[in-house]
Amino acid sequence: MKKKSVTLLMLTMMFGLMSTVVSAASFTLTVNADGPNYGKDAYQIFKDHFGPKPVDGAASDRIFEVNSPSVGHAFEFIVKNTDPLENNTSQRNEVKVYNASRAELKAPKDSNYTYKWKFKLDENFEFPKKAHFFAMFQYKAIGQNDDIPLLTFSLDQNVLKFYHNPKGTDNTQRKVLSQVDFTNYRDVWVEATVTVVNSDHGFLSMTLKTLDGKDVMPPYSANQDMWIDGANIIRPKWGIYRKHYAEIKDAKIQFANFQISKH
User: How far apart are CA 27 and CA 262, in angstroms?
Assistant: First the structure.
């Protein structure tokens, strides 16, 4: 074989290898319900994708699969008013990425991730009382200073707020980046998309839309501090995390089409 041909072959192989490496570096995971009374139950689906203990809350009978005319199959998260309290004040039923999850799902410093999912409040959903939090999404560190989430979608009475807080130990730096009156969005499917560059000098974008593409909440896009000092990784949590009070009612929220993309 001529020297020129050998050189061309080597270059072709080298660029092919580089393409493979770039492709392997990106990653997308989609988690869908497969329908009630069919296939795997909700808990097993989350275990298969997120690891052996992916739920903060009851180990059974609080996440179900349901049919939806809008999104096909969905997961229904429930917290009952009689469920056990955490630290005597709160109740939790969340699915999570955590230490035992596969490496691609855990965001290290200087990584770039996009998270997409759909959710719907129950038609009889009771909005929380004043000064009683109700979080449906948390973007939270694991490591040091990991008490307070970096990002949160949380209800403040009937107002859905998108919070940012780069200080993981308290809320002194927490700010509302966007918000909307959510009163008219009971029993309405919406889709959230959050893109993050996980860095001290990072970037954040967020949209919340109806399924036909109309903005529900004013979109947000800007450079931001998107890392918590002392963190090993940042990871998402979805579900119900709420402050309890005496006359609180059962809560029910449906989620569908969870997607985690590493860029």
Answer: 5
3-state secondary structure of 243: strand
Alpha-carbon separation of residue 11 from 7, 15, 21 (angstroms): 6, 6, 15
Pairing of strands 231-243, 63-68: unpaired
CA dist 11 and 64 (Å) reads: 53
Q: What is the pLDDT of residues 127-172, one digit of tens each?
A: 999 999 999 999 999 999 999 999 999 999 999 999 999 999 999 9
HSE (CB half, 13 Å, CA atoms) of 222? 7
Determine contact, residues 28/261, Cβ cutoff 8 Å: yes
Pseudo-torsion of CA 93, 209, 221, 24, nearest 10°? 70
By C-alpha distance, which of 43, 83, 73 is closest to 60?
Answer: 43
Sign of the Cα pseudo-torsion (227, 156, 137, 232, in order): positive
pTM listed for this prediction = 0.90
